[in-house]
Each structure stands twice: as structure tokens, then as C-alpha cells.
Amino acid sequence: MCRTCSLFNTRTNAVPGDGSSVLKAMLVGEAPGRSEDQLGTPFVGKAGKILDNILRTTGINRSQLYITNIVKCRPPHNRKPKSIEVMACRMYLNREIAVLKPRIIGLMGRTAYSTLIGGNGFSSSRGQILEINGQSYFITFHPAAAIYNKTIKESLRIDFTKLAFELGLK
Ligand code: URA
Question: Which of 7, 12, 28, 43 to mutate to test the pocket of ligand 1 (most atoms within 8 A of CB)?
């Protein structure tokens, strides 16, 4: 049971990544929310339903992807993870990447972008597939941003269609 940062005090379950390496693609979100904390599985709440819907409509099978988060425990009241928590949890993400050796890492939202790529280039990179130090990254919005925003949902659909092409699914 990890106690590296203080999120262990308030979590119900740690939420490790979930899925498979069939497509050699990994999607990275921010942090577990309430449903994920209850069930111990990433992206099973509202944002997860949006993600599932987008994956389904773009022809990507969720069970063939590996889905994880920057931090594995829910921050209280779904606040953004603090940088000390991101740093403490980084070893798990590094291990996931080292074991899976993903061909492409999908960064969903600014927290995933700034943690793995750094800087403020999220908006200008969104929708693109970038090659950095020999690793491909697919940059898109966090699915939660589409909960009340149809334009973002449409952008997610366009971005994930691009990913489906990149993975040879279309
Ligand atoms: N938001 C995330 O970033 N991750 C989850 O697992 C659920 C919601």
C-alpha cells in the first residue's frame, strides 16, 4: 500500500492503470475521481463514459488500450494534483511506460501534457501527434472537459479518429 504522498490518507482505493498492450497505446489522464476511487479502476465515472463513447464511435476498442493517470490516488474534492504528488507518483507511470513500451502515449489534458512533455504548449499541440526523444505522443483534451462542452466533444472525436488511423484501425 503506497504511502509516498499524503493522498493515501483520503483515498478509498489506489487506482492503477488498466487494460492491455494489444495496440501498444497508452492513454494518460489526470487523477482518479469519485467513481474510480470507489472501484479502483480508471475512467469508469462520467469522464470515463465520455471516453468510452468516443472510443466506440472512432472504432477503438478500449480493452486493447492501456489507460492510466498521472496520479493513482484521488485528490480530495477532485482538486488538481499538487506537484509534490505528481512527483511522488511518477515512479509508477515510469514503470508502466517501461513495461508496456507504448508505441504511442495519449496525453489527455494539460496535467498529462505538462507532466510528460513540460511547458505550456498544450493548446498549440492539441490534435497533433508529436515525436519527442523517440517517443510518439498524441495530444488531446481531457474527456471531462467535454461534459458540458459539445465543441470539445467534437474535437475529441476528431482527435481520436486521427489516433485510430495512426494505430492502423481505419
Ligand atoms: N479523470 C481522470 O483524469 N482520470 C480518471 O480515471 C477519471 C477521471
Answer: 43
Whole-model pTM? 0.98
pLDDT in tens, 102-120: 999 999 999 999 999 999 9
In this predicted model, what pLDDT tens digit does every residue of 34-64 receive, in sequence order? 999 999 999 999 999 999 999 999 999 999 9
Q: Ligand 1 center to residue 15 CA distance, Å?
A: 10
Residue 26 burial (10 A CB sphere; 0-12, 13-18, 19+): buried
**Three-state DSSP state, 51:** helix
Which protein residues touch ligand 1 with a CB less than 6 Å away?
29-33, 36, 42-43, 45, 47-48, 69, 144
CATH superfamily of 6-166: Uracil-DNA glycosylase-like domain (3.40.470.10)
